[in-house]
Amino acid sequence: MSKTTRDESATDKKELNQFEQHYFTSYDHYGIHEEMLQDTVRTLSYRNAIMQNKDMFKDKVVLDVGCGTGILSMFAAKHGAKHVIGVDMSSIIEMARKIVDLNGFSDKITLLRGKLEDVVLPFPKVDIIISEWMGYFLLYESMLDTVLYARDKYLVEGGLIFPDKCSIHIAGLEDSEYKSEKLSYWQDVYGFDYTPFVPIVKEEPIVDTVDNNAINTTKCKMIEFDLNTVKLSDLDFKVPFEVEVKRQDWINGVICWFDIVFPAPKGKKPIEFSTGAHAPYTHWKQTVFYLEDDLECEKGDILRGELTCSPNKRNNRDLDVKISYEFEARGVDAKERSRKNENVYLMH
Amino acid sequence: MSKTTRDESATDKKELNQFEQHYFTSYDHYGIHEEMLQDTVRTLSYRNAIMQNKDMFKDKVVLDVGCGTGILSMFAAKHGAKHVIGVDMSSIIEMARKIVDLNGFSDKITLLRGKLEDVVLPFPKVDIIISEWMGYFLLYESMLDTVLYARDKYLVEGGLIFPDKCSIHIAGLEDSEYKSEKLSYWQDVYGFDYTPFVPIVKEEPIVDTVDNNAINTTKCKMIEFDLNTVKLSDLDFKVPFEVEVKRQDWINGVICWFDIVFPAPKGKKPIEFSTGAHAPYTHWKQTVFYLEDDLECEKGDILRGELTCSPNKRNNRDLDVKISYEFEARGVDAKERSRKNENVYLMH
C-alpha cells in the first residue's frame, strides 16, 4: 500500500513516519524504489559520474551490487559498458528484468537474484563495481560489507569502484525546542507518568532534515573511507573530533552527515555530493544525536571528543554509537559552562 | 532509530514514508507507540468512552486486547475496573510493565506477553473487552480477528466491547494532478521506460490525508459491523454503494474511511469518531483508490457499484479489494460521459 502525505501539518509528518513501519517489510515494495529514484541528488550523481567516465566504462564488465530496478546498470550499459551484471536479493529484480528488456538492454545486462555471496557471475572478474550501498549515517543498514566482498572476490587489479570515497562529518546543533518537547512529552501522557520511555528516546539518534542555520559550530570531518582499500574491520572505529563555536547559543546535540565522491578522469573534478544540511535534500537527510547536556556556548568555545561506532553485538545490523565529549568553554563563565560527558546511542 | 521531518517540502514528505520502511519491523519500536498516543482523536475517544461509562466499569474485569504501552488498561483501572488484563505480543509490554508499576496500578493490571490465543488469563471470563484494533481502511492488518476470538472465548454473556460499532464509508474524489503525476512519472525515468511499474502503482490504494473539498459526491455508508455479533466470515464481504455528484468536476478515484462508536449509558450520546476527510486528523488518514477512468462529471450524475473486500489467498494479512462501478452521467453528453468498469486492488 502506498502511503504519502500532502498536507502541511508538522504533527502529521511526525506521526506518519514510524506508524507506517509495519506495512513494509523489505525492498520488495515499489515505493522505496520510487523514492530512491526520485532522489535526484543521488541518482543524477551516479549518472553524471558514469557519463563523466565514459572512456573508463567503454567495453568494460561492470558489476552493480544491489541493483534494485536496474537504473545504475542501464546507465553503465548506455554509456559504453560491454556487459553489466546486476545482483539483488529482493523481488524487485523481477521488475528490473522487465525494464531492462523493455529498454533494449537484455543482451548487455545480466540480472541475478540472490545474495552476492551465493550467485555465480557469468564473468570471473569485473572491471568496475557500481553500487548505491549507503544507509543513514552512511553505515546504518548499509550494504558496504557486500561491496567489499565483491571487490575482494571479483574486481580486477586496478579496477574501479563507483563511488570510491566517503566521509562522515560532525558539527554542533541548536535544537532546544524540539529536543525538550520530545523528552518532556513522556512526563505526563494523559495524566500518567511515561518517563520509562525517556532513556529509550535519548539513546535513539534522529534522522531528520535540519535547517543549516541551526548548526552553530565549525564542521569536522571525522573519518574518510577509501573503498579501494578499506577493510571490514575499519567500519568498527573510534575517531576524534573538534569543532569551534561560531556564536552565542545553545548546543543541544551534534549532527552527522556523509559526503560521497566518485572516481574521475585525470585532471577532472570528480562528481561528488553531500548529505549535509548545507546541501540540497537527499533521502538520507542528517542524523542528530542529542547530548545529555544542553551546552550554553559562546563564540570560540571548543567542543571536542571521540565518536565510537561499532556493530551491535546482539544484532550486527544495528549500530552502537558512543560520543564522549569535553566542552571547553572560554571567556565568560568558562568554568561554569564547561562540561564533560559520555553518551551512548543505539541505531536500530 | 527515530525518523521525523520538520521541513516543509512536499517532495520530502512523499519521499520519506516508504524509504523508512526497512528500519522498523514491528510494534517493538517506541516511535509507533508515541504516534498512536499522540493521535489525540484516537486516545481521547477511548478515555472519554471509559469515563462516560464509569458505572459500567465499576468492579468489572476488563481485557485489553493488544495493550501496547498500557494506556487503555490504565484508563480502565483508573475509572473503576476491579482488574484489567492487558495482552500483547510485542516487547513493548515490558515497557508497559514499568509504566503500570510506576503509576501504581500493578495490583490492578495484569500484563501478559504472548498471543491471546496462547496466554492463560487469571480470570475465566471478563466483563468488558477494550481494544484499539483498527488498521488503515479499518481492516488492513487489523487485530479484529483477535478481538472476536477474545469475545467468543472470554466475554461474559451481555458483556461489553469498547468500541462496538464501526462502519466503512465511500465518496467520489477529484485528484487529477497527483494521480497523473504518480502514473506519468514512470514514462520517463532518467530517459528510461519504467512503465512496467504502472500496473503496480494502479493497484495500490494510497493512504493519505485528503482535503475535504476534493470530495465532490455525496457520501455512502457501505457497511457497518456490530462487534457484539459480527463473525469472522463477515469480514469477507461484497457491498453496493451509490453516490451522487455535487458539482461539475472530475472523479479520479474514490475515497474510503471508517467511523467508530463506543457503547454509551442509556439515554446518553455515545462517544464516536470519524477518520473521514471532514473530521480532524487521525493517523489512519483516508484511503484512496484511483479508478481506471477519469470521470467527467456534472451535478446529479450517479456513481454506483460494488466493493468487494477479502483477505488475499496467498497472504491473508493482505487485502484484495475489487471495485466494480457504473458511472451514470445525466444531462449534458450523458452517453459519452458514462462508464462501466471493474478495478482490482491489493493492500499489502
UniProtKB/TrEMBL annotation, chains A, B:
The keyword Transferase applies. Residues 164-328 form the Protein arginine N-methyltransferase domain. One of its GO terms (molecular function) is protein-arginine omega-N monomethyltransferase activity. Keywords: Methyltransferase, S-adenosyl-L-methionine, Transferase. InterPro entries: Arg_MeTrfase, PRMT_dom, SAM-dependent_MTases_sf. It holds the Pfam family PRMT_C. One of its GO terms (cellular component) is nucleus. Transmembrane segments: none annotated. One of its GO terms (biological process) is mRNA export from nucleus. PROSITE patterns: SAM_MT_PRMT. This is Protein arginine N-methyltransferase domain-containing protein. The gene is KAFR0C00670.
